[in-house]
Automatic annotation (TrEMBL):
<protein>
    <submittedName>
        <fullName>Uncharacterized protein</fullName>
    </submittedName>
</protein>
<keyword id="KW-0732">Signal</keyword>
<dbReference type="InterPro" id="IPR011042">
    <property type="entry name" value="6-blade_b-propeller_TolB-like"/>
</dbReference>
<dbReference type="InterPro" id="IPR011659">
    <property type="entry name" value="WD40"/>
</dbReference>
<dbReference type="Pfam" id="PF07676">
    <property type="entry name" value="PD40"/>
</dbReference>
<feature type="signal peptide">
    <location>
        <begin position="1"/>
        <end position="24"/>
    </location>
</feature>
Length: 370
């Protein structure tokens, strides 16, 4: 009897300690309420372990300015709210205005000195200190060739590959734009990534997926001429793909293949033509696939109501061990890694709220790994 009483008391104390840990993380900073939570699941034997989850309420994170700073907005995207920089370590420092508003995508250059910012009608290169902006020459009056909903990809620190309404284009740092590929009528690009050629600093490979669920790759070269140019035509490499992401070294693709009605299979496949895919997991929907900058981790969101297991996952790329880091299956917003790969950011507009009113709730969670 005494031992049973001691066990019950230990459980009560543990529950109270967990509650106090959550409450202790709440603070006010820069107008956004910050909560530090314990992870929902922590596997002691895994290669990937969560150290902390930081929640920023009334904030939508777009990108990382550094390993400890994020670029965010305090209102839904359509409200054209100015962007600001928020520090995750200097909590008493006020948020810093970036001098940019009306953004649908924000993508820092690999060196961190410049941002590519786009919305529905226009895009610009913005210096990270906010002191200079170079508009892209992609619009004429009320018409634009820009597909501003799609986040593009940097070609080193030298140019930017982005989606147009009918294909792909490259922007030089002076704002001039050149088309590199046209799609057939009725098609558009829904995701773009790019990796450098490890043997030639002037060459890159762009990857994209279209509305027909087809993944292509396109060789791009930056010569002495003003604009980068495509080498040859796009090469079809996968069909029936719901989403994809290429590893930073360009050696592997993670692909969510549509394997049936309301069924996706996540696979790893080498970018060489002879390698067989490795099946990782299955779910009803698998989206937002994202490699960490060093290629050591792979993040993805999965919705799997029938079998359970919905949530946000991070996999160790060497061992294949996978850790559930959030029970919320975010399927709409991209997963963004910090430059050092130690933190992963997920932002969302709460789906239960009306997204056309000012009462829309925003939330950003940042997962720090040990």
């Amino acid at each position: 009897m005494k031992k049973n009483a001691e066990r019950k008391l230990a459980k009560v104390v543990a529950a109270m300690a967990a509650s106090l840990a959550i409450l202790a993380g709440c603070s006010e900073n820069g107008g956004a309420r910050v909560t530090v939570k314990n992870p929902p699941i922590r596997e002691e034997t895994g290669k990937i372990e969560l150290g902390q989850i930081v929640r920023l309420e009334d904030a939508y994170g777009f990108a990382w300015l550094s390993d400890t700073e994020i670029i965010a907005s305090k209102k839904p995207k359509w409200m054209e709210e100015p962007l600001y920089v928020h520090s995750l370590v200097k909590e008493k420092d006020p948020d810093r205005a970036l001098g940019v508003q009306d953004a649908l995508t924000v993508n820092p250059s690999p060196g961190g000195g410049m941002l590519f910012v786009s919305n529905q009608m226009k895009a610009s290169f913005v210096y990270a200190d906010g002191l200079k902006k170079i508009p892209l020459q992609a619009s004429s009056g009320n018409e634009t060739s820009l597909n501003g909903n799609v986040r593009g990809a940097w070609l080193g620190d030298r140019a930017y590959l982005f989606a147009e309404v009918d294909g792909l284009a490259v922007a030089g740092l002076d704002g001039h734009v050149a088309s590199v590929m046209k799609l057939k009528d009725g098609q558009d690009v829904i995701k773009v990534e790019a990796v450098p050629d490890p043997k030639d600093p002037n060459r890159f490979t762009g990857y994209f997926i279209d509305r027909d669920s087809s993944v292509y790759k396109l060789r791009i070269v930056i010569k002495e001429s003003r604009f980068p140019k495509a080498e040859g035509k796009p090469e079809l490499i996968r069909t029936r793909a719901a989403d994809f992401s290429v590893s930073p070294d360009g050696s592997r693709l993670a692909v969510a293949e549509e394997t049936g009605d309301h069924a996706n299979t996540l696979e790893l496949v080498g970018t060489g033509a002879t390698e067989k895919p490795t099946r990782l997991t299955e779910g009803r929907l698998i989206r937002q696939i994202s490699w960490s900058p060093d290629g050591s981790k792979l993040a993805y969101s999965m919705f799997n109501l029938e079998r359970g297991g919905s949530g946000l996952y991070v996999m160790d790329a060497k061992t294949g061990h996978t850790t559930l880091v959030s029970l919320y299956p975010n399927l709409q917003s991209i997963l963004v890694w910090s430059p050092d790969g130690d933190r992963l950011m997920m932002s969302q507009e709460h789906p239960e709220m009306n997204l056309t009113t000012e009462r829309t709730k925003l939330m950003t969670e940042i997962y720090r790994f040990k």
